[in-house]
Amino acid sequence: MQIASLAEVGVTNVSTSDTIDSTFAALQRAQLARRGSFTLEARIAQLDQLRDSIKRHESNIIAACAADFRKPAPEVKLTELLPVLQEIRHTKKHLRKWMRPKRVAASVGVLGTKSYVRPEPKGVCLIIAPWNYPLNLALGPLVSALAAGNGAIIKPSEMTPHTSKVIANIVAETFPPDLVSVIEGDAAVAQKLLALPFDHIFFTGSPAVGKLVMEAAAKNLSSVTLELGGKSPTIVGPDANIKRAARNIVWGKFANNGQTCIAPDHVFVHVNIADQFNEALKTEIGRVYGKTPEAQKSTADYCRIVNRRHFQRVSNLIDDAKSKGARVFEGGVTDAEENFIAPTLISNVSSDMDISREELFGPILPVIEFDDIDLVIKKINDNPKPLALYIFDKKESFATDIIERTSSGAVGVNLTVVHFLHPGLPFGGVNNSGIGAAHGEYGFRAFSHEKALMEDKHSLMHLLFPPYTAWVRRLIEAAVRILG
C-alpha cells in the first residue's frame, strides 16, 4: 500500500535509502541523548500510551485484519489484541524488578569486591514483523524493546497492508519518531534496513528468511532474536481423551486458517484409537466451522489464506499429496476467488510427499497412525527441532517420556498453542525453529545488555600483581592450588 502523505499518517516513506538512513541516524542520536534519563517512570508512561492507543484503534485493527485476510473479529481480539495488552500489563507490574541491578555474591577469589549485573538498553533495535499475526508480532516485541529502554524501527509486512497502515498510525500518534518509527515496504526495504548497524534485530518469519537475517546481522555483529517455525508435531497417545484432543487440535490448527507458526503441523495418533479420533476431528470441524464447504465459506469464524500466492502454495500441497496416494477424508475444497481452502484432513501420508517435508502454514492436517512410540520419537529427532510439540494422553508418564527424549522450543500437554499467551514463559525455538526468546522478562532480557559491574572495597588482589617476586609467585601458586 502506497502512503500518499507522511503528515497524514505519520509514517516514513521509504522510497530512498537516504530516508532510511536519516531515520536510523535520528534514533541513534536520540538514544545516546536518552542514556540515563529513560527511567522506569518514563518507560511505563510510554507503555501506557501504547495501550491507550491500541484500545482507541480497536475497531480499526479489526477492520484492517478483516480487509487483509478476513480474520474474524473475536479471533483478532483473542490473538492480536489480548497478547499485546497482556504483555503491557505484565511488563508494567514487573519492570521495576527487572530493571534493578542484581547483586552477585563474591567468590573466594575476589573477596573484598562488590558485584552487580546491571541491565542496560542495547540501543536502536529493528523489529521485522510477519503477516500472519501482523499487529501482535509487531507490537509485542516493541513492548519488550521499550521496557528495556531502547528505540526501535518496526518494519511491518507488506502482505497485510491495511494492518500495516494501522500500526503506522498507532506508532505515529503514540511515540516521538526518534523513539519509535515505522518503515513500510517490501523485501528490498528489509534488505536496506538489515544493512544498517542495529544494536539488536528481532525477526519473526520462516527459517529460510531467518538465515538471511542472521547472515546480514553478522556483518554488523548485531545480536538477534529469531522467532521462526517448522513442523510442530502432535502425538495422540492410546489413553488420550479423544474429544478433548480433537477440540484442542482443531482450534490450534485451523484458527487463522492454519497460518500460525506453532499450529499443529501433523498428528501421530495411536492405531488403537485412530478411527475414533478421525471421526472426532471431523465432528469438531463441523461443529466449529460448518459441516459443508458452503457453510465453512459463509461462516464469519473462518479466516482466509493471506494472498493468491500462498493460496496456490497450499493448494499445490494438497494436489501433490493426492497424486502420490494420500486420502483426503475431510475438506480439500478450494476457491481461488476467495483464497478459501476448507479445513482439510489427510491420511495415507508418505515421506515423498511435499506435506511431509514443508512447513504447511495452512489448513491442512496430515494424520499418521502409529503403534510404536519409539519410531515416532525417532522420526521427530531425525528432523529439525520444532518450535512446539504437543502431546495428548491421560498418563503423565507417556508425556514425560516423550519430553525427555525430544527437543523443541516448547511443549503443550493436552493443549495446543495456549502457551503463547503465558507472559511468564519464554517463547522461542531451538536452532532451526529459532534463536533466543520473547515475552515477559525473557523479552526484556533479549533487548538488554547485561553489564557486569564490580567495585573494589577491600580486596587483596593487588598482592598478586607484578613484579612477580618469589613471594608473589608463592601466593599465585597457593591461589591456583586452593581455588583451582
TrEMBL record:
One Pfam match: Aldedh
Aldehyde dehydrogenase domain span: 13-452
Keywords: NAD, Oxidoreductase
GO cellular component: cytoplasm
GO biological processes: aldehyde metabolic process
InterPro entries listed in its UniProt record: Ald_DH/histidinol_DH, Ald_DH_C, Ald_DH_CS_CYS, Ald_DH_CS_GLU, Ald_DH_N, Aldehyde_DH_dom, Aldehyde_DH_NAD(P)
GO molecular function, one term: aldehyde dehydrogenase (NAD+) activity
Annotated Gene3D superfamilies: Aldehyde Dehydrogenase, Chain A, domain 1, Aldehyde Dehydrogenase, Chain A, domain 2
Superkingdom, natural source: Bacteria
Catalytic residue positions: 227, 261
Family note: Belongs to the aldehyde dehydrogenase family.
Protein's UniProt name: Aldehyde dehydrogenase
Source organism: Marinobacter profundi
